[in-house]
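Consider the following input, taken from an annotated entry for BrxA/BrxB family bacilliredoxin (Halobacillus kuroshimensis).
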Amino acid sequence: MNPYEQYMKEISQPMRDELTNAGFTELTTPEEVDTFIGETKGTSLVVVNSVCGCAAGLARPSARESLNNEKAPEHLVTVFAGQDREATARMRDYFEGYEPSSPSMALLKDGQVVHFIPREDIEDYEVEEITANLTKAYNEYC
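Applying the prediction step yields:
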């Protein structure tokens, strides 16, 4: 690992921990993504994490807060854009019809996207608005 990669890994660890401490499982390889999509039944929240400010101040807090809803996804996973590039690219392959964006969040049912929140619906929104967007989807699909 070169010094830049090492630095970015160290910098991003707290950003990873913020989701894993909330119960999310990191998928770091394309194989892990394929296994998850292929074998997981029910509802799943996928957070495409990133180092940007809107991930830190909006996406991650909204994802965590949304889990306090009466209905919530059965499975929680995350991929890290810019860090685990191959895993992120593979997950985005499953987001058919949606442009790649990070951060972003997808609610899946049996591996299919049923609700998607791209960066443009995160940036410049309040945590409460994003949380409401997620919980509305949970109430419909979970």
